[in-house]
Write a structure and sequence with these properties.
Chains A, B: InterPro entries: DNA-bd_HTH_TetR-type_CS, Homeodomain-like_sf, HTH-type_TetR-like_transc_reg, HTH_TetR, MftR_C. Chains A, B: This is TetR family transcriptional regulator. Chains A, B: Keywords: DNA-binding, Transcription, Transcription regulation. The structure is a homodimer of 203-residue chains. Chain A has 203 residues and is mainly α. Chain A has 2 domains: 56 residues, Arc Repressor Mutant, subunit A (Orthogonal Bundle), CATH 1.10.10.60; 123 residues, Orthogonal Bundle (Tetracycline Repressor, domain 2). The longest helix of chain A is centred in the middle third of the chain and has 33 residues. Chain A starts with 8 loop residues before the first helix and ends in a 10-residue tail after the last helix. At the A-B interface, helix 7, helix 8 and helix 9 of A face helix 7, helix 8 and helix 9 of B. The structure holds a DNA duplex (30 and 30 nucleotides).
Chain lengths: 203, 203
Amino acid sequence: MTTHAAEGLRDRKKRQTRTALGHAAVRLVAEHGLDHVTVEDISAAADVSPRTFFNYFAGKEDAVLGPDPEAGPRLRARVLAQPADLSTAAAVREALLEEVAAELADDRELWLLRMRVVQQHPVLLAKLFSGGEALERDLVAGIAERVGLPADDTYPLLLGAAAGAAFRVAVTRWSSTAAPLHDLLAEALDLLAAGLAEPPRQS
Amino acid sequence: MTTHAAEGLRDRKKRQTRTALGHAAVRLVAEHGLDHVTVEDISAAADVSPRTFFNYFAGKEDAVLGPDPEAGPRLRARVLAQPADLSTAAAVREALLEEVAAELADDRELWLLRMRVVQQHPVLLAKLFSGGEALERDLVAGIAERVGLPADDTYPLLLGAAAGAAFRVAVTRWSSTAAPLHDLLAEALDLLAAGLAEPPRQS
DNA sequence: GTAAAATCCTGCACTTACTGCAAGTTTGCA
DNA sequence: TGCAAACTTGCAGTAAGTGCAGGATTTTAC
C-alpha cells in the first residue's frame, strides 16, 4: 500500500483519527443502519469529540464513503506512468486495474462492508458518485496531460467519465455476483473500447 | 411538452405546488446562494407551509435539482419506440437527443439557471448525479428490454452508465461554451460509439 | 533546550434540517 | 349530500452542522 515514512507526528495522528472515524462509521452503520447511528456514536467509537468529527468529514455519509484524498493524485500518476506505446484508452484501463488491485489488497473487508452498506442505503449512492467525481477530476487531468489536450476538452472529459461509469458498473456487479472485481472491470472496459457494440445474444 | 389532459384537480394542484417549489428554489438559490436560502424561504415563496415542503422534496437540494419523476419512464419509452433496425447504441443515442430537444424546448431558462447554480455550488453535483442515477435505472430497463438481456447484465448497465456519462459531459461543456447542447451530446455519443479511439491531435 | 508560532481539539451556543403525529381542510366518489 | 381518501398544516422533538474562543500539543526557530 501507500507508505508514509517521513511524516511528522501531527500528520500521522491526523491520518489515524481520520481512518478511525471512517472505519467506525462503516462498522456502526453496517451493524445498526444509517439513521440509527449518530455522529455522536461515531465520534465516541473513535474516541474524539463530536465537534472534531466535523473537522474531518462534512457529515455522516462522507465518513462512510470517505473520499480518500490521496487516491486522485495516485490515479493520475498511474495514467502518466503507463508505457508511451499504449493508446490513451489502454493506459486508462491499465491504470484503473492497477489501482483496484492495490486498493483491494489493502482493505478488502472494508470495501466489502462499504458495498453492503451502500446496497442497504441507496441514499449513499449520491455520495458514492460525487466521491467518484472528485476522483474523476484527477483522472481527467492525467488523461489531458498525457494526450496533450486541455482538461476541458470533450475527449479527456468523456474518457474519464466513461471510465468512471465502467468502474461503477463493475463495482455494482461485484457486490451482487461473486466474480473478482478485476475481471468485471476488465470486461466493462473492453466493452467500452469496442464502442458498446451489440453484445453476444445468449438465447 | 407533456400534456396532462384528463387529470383530476388534486393531481393538477400537486403538480403545481411541486413545480412552484422547484422554481422558487432555483430562483432563490441563484440569487442569494445555496446556504443563504432556507427551506422556510422557499416555502414562503411558493406559498405553502415549511412542513408541506418536505411532503414534496427530501431537502433543499432535491428541490433545486428536482428529479422529474416522469422523465425516467418517458426516456425508457423513447428507447423502445426507436425503429427496430437501429443498433441498441444508436437507439439510445436517438432517444437521448429526442429527450434533450423536448426538455429544452420546454424549460430552457430554467435549465440554464440550474446549470449556473450547480457551477456555483459543487455540492449539488452529488444530487445531480444521483438524480441522473434514478433516470439511468429506467434507461437501463429500456435497454435491457430492447436487447433481451436481464437488467443486471453488464451490457445494459454499461450502456446506460456510458450514456449518462456522455450526457453529463455534454451538459458540463454546454454550461461553459456557447455551443448547442444537441451538438455537444451528439459529439460525445459518437466518440463513445467509436470506442473512445484516440482523438485528432490538434497541435 | 526553551520559547514562540502554528495547528489541533474541545465545549458551548446557536441556527437549520428533518420527522412523527394529530387535527383540520380539500377533493373524489357514490 | 355525505362518506372516504388524500393533502396541508402546526407542534414538538431529535439530530445535523457551524462559529467562536480557550486550552492542549506539536513544530519551528533561536
